From TrEMBL:
Key word Kinase present: no
Organism, scientific name: Enhygromyxa salina
Protein name: GGDEF domain-containing protein
Coiled-coil ranges from the UniProt annotation: 107-134
Protein keywords: Coiled coil
InterPro entries xrefs: GGDEF_dom, Nucleotide_cyclase, Rev_trsase/Diguanyl_cyclase
Keyword Calcium applies: no
Domain GGDEF residues, every copy: 139-274
Length: 278
């Protein structure tokens, strides 16, 4: 093998050595010396003495592919690498051929990186699954966010044909209400499920979205809301309940619930069902 071929192999990150007919090393490229950590004067040495994991020369393939075994070798720089070896025979039979080493450490790093990413993905999937198993605690949303949630809930309700109900809650405004607003919000959150959504329109007006809930189920929740708010000393509370109609926009159902709640508040408090007219 000429010097140009050796330089080409070295340039790929590998190395090579010319073998004598009896299988000892005749000469080696700088890349071969660096990869094996061999002394510079290695003429006459057997390759197996330099690379302990190297199979017998007769067992080496003529080329390196994905199935070629990997040899673990510490180079001249003290860094461990994963190499594969191939033996290119001399067509003339005058020498033992050329032993080529291919550095596959990059492939090993890639495999380890892929394995690490795979474990991270599995961990994330497990975490997401665990979160899905945990009940989602409702929180108070802005009305802009609640409107978006209503659109999403309405889309699912019509796709899977389940009922959707809106509850509007209006509390008579007084000086003490501002101090109890947080307590009111926490009380309302405690009245609903994890799949429900709660929004606050202003200081004394809240709105609930109840998926999978018909008008009768909304009435049950509304009565619970009235009872819990009464425990806070809020006697004058108007609650309106409206089930979204089959072709009705979500905003129209909210308006019906709001009107029912306002009417109930004007009548001294209580519950009013906004039954859709067919």
């Amino acid at each position: 093998m000429n010097a140009g071929s050796r330089e080409l192999i070295d340039a790929t990150g590998g190395g090579c050595c010319q073998l004598r007919a009896e299988g000892t090393i005749d000469s080696a490229s700088p890349g071969f010396v660096a990869l094996t950590g061999a002394p510079k004067d290695i003429a006459g040495r057997e390759p197996g003495a330099l690379i302990r994991e190297l199979p017998a020369l007769a067992e080496l393939p003529s080329m390196v592919d994905a199935e070629t075994p990997v040899l673990r070798v510490v180079g001249a720089d003290g860094i461990g690498r994963e190499l594969s070896a191939a033996l290119v025979a001399d067509p003339g039979g005058e020498s033992g051929g050329v032993l080529i080493l291919v550095d596959r450490s990059g492939e090993a790093r890639l495999r380890r990186s892929q394995a690490r990413l795979g474990r991270q993905i599995d961990d994330l999937k497990a975490e997401l699954a665990e979160r899905e198993r945990e009940p989602r605690r409702p929180r108070i949303r802005s009305m802009v966010e609640l409107a978006r949630r209503l659109d999403e809930a309405l889309m699912r309700a019509r796709r899977y044909k389940h009922p959707l109900t809106i509850i509007s809650i209006e509390v008579e405004s007084d000086e003490a209400l501002a101090d109890r607003a947080m307590a009111v919000g926490e009380t309302l959150i405690a009245c609903v499920r994890g799949v429900d959504d709660l929004g606050r329109a202003d200081a004394n007006h809240w709105c609930l979205i109840l998926p999978h809930t018909p008008l009768a189920g909304g009435e049950v929740v509304a009565k619970r809301v009235l009872a819990r708010l009464a425990e806070l000393g809020l006697a004058t509370v108007g609650v309106g309940v409206a089930q979204v109609g089959a072709e009705e926009p979500g905003s129209a159902a909210v308006e019906r619930a709001d009107q029912a709640g306002a009417q109930a508040l004007e009548s001294g408090g209580g519950l009013l069902l906004a039954v859709a007219l067919v």
